[in-house]
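[Q] Does anyone have a clean structure-token version of this?
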Amino acid sequence: MRIATLLILAYAATAAPACNSIACGTGTIERNGTCGPADETVNAAMCGPNTVVQGTQCVPVYPPTICDPSSTTEDTGSDGVTTCRGNGMGGGCSAPIPCPNPSSGKQTICGQIYNFEDGTPFKGAATGAACAGTETAGPCALQILAFDAVNFAHAPTMTNPQAVGKVVIDDCGRYAVEDITPPGNAFIALGFDDRGPLGPTGVTVTTGVAMPTSPDTKTQGFEAFVLDQSVIGSWTASGGPPFANGIYAGVFRAHTCDGGTCIGDSFANQMNAQMTKSTVVIPANDFYFKTSDGMTRENVDNNMNATSANGTALYINASVDDSLAYSGTGSIVDTVNCQWEPHAAANVPGLLFIQIYRKTAKLGKTCAE
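[A] Here you go.
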């Protein structure tokens, strides 16, 4: 009987909860009678992206990223990874601006801004420093907006800009418009102007360039332009079209470029080309520059009926509804294999819209001009 009583008492002592509980501090919890870290994990599947288990804790796979502030800018993605992106500081303007791949479903466009008057790069201090957005002169005084080109051509004041992830401009006049939400129509346009409302006020007129809508792609080296208000005044005074109704400018280049590889100098302009609509030259619609202007675009000559050394035609009465009806004629040696590219065109009030025209291969042919 005594033995049975002792066994019952021993069982009751082990089965009963302890009278003394452990008081764990902030950030810890009680585990098996001891205090341990509250965020402890022993399961690798519970660690976040770019971390691994070491002992009982999740630690980063990579060491912390430290960017050189004099030459790079921190760019932290949605995955938490920080990338040091070069901003060109110290390297001048010789290299293209960094052009990151777009996020899924987006489109990125990068390139250089040029003076349309003389074709030179539109530069400021030319150190490669990214613009702060508070400058009042040079490329750093500009803004860049992306638009649905077709909607904008039909109703410019009623068309809102497309959403973008980031716009970068530096004092070399290089730019990157990242993660553009592609428009629903076939063409995406970039508008360049002084900061503030788009329009004729300010130092530069509003200029536009366009390319095909292409989600999940990036384009490097896309030419963009600015033009001083005073040059528009010279065009009008020398017999050019009124700017109030908008001007379309076609710049004819001498060489074909395929996939970024050009037969010759990609900036070489073509003399003696004429702009066409549906293969027809319409003299009432096109204007060309004085031969004495050389490579500049300052004075219209109403006696000219083809491009001079600057390769440029100014055009009126163009409509985006004509689709790819606008092209060129003349100055092609190999007419069996080569032709001028077809493009869409539009005259938008108060806007200078600029399009590069190149020689391209006819269907099933190879153009080597």
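[Q] Thanks! Anything notable?
[A] Residues 1-19 have pLDDT under 50 and may be disordered.
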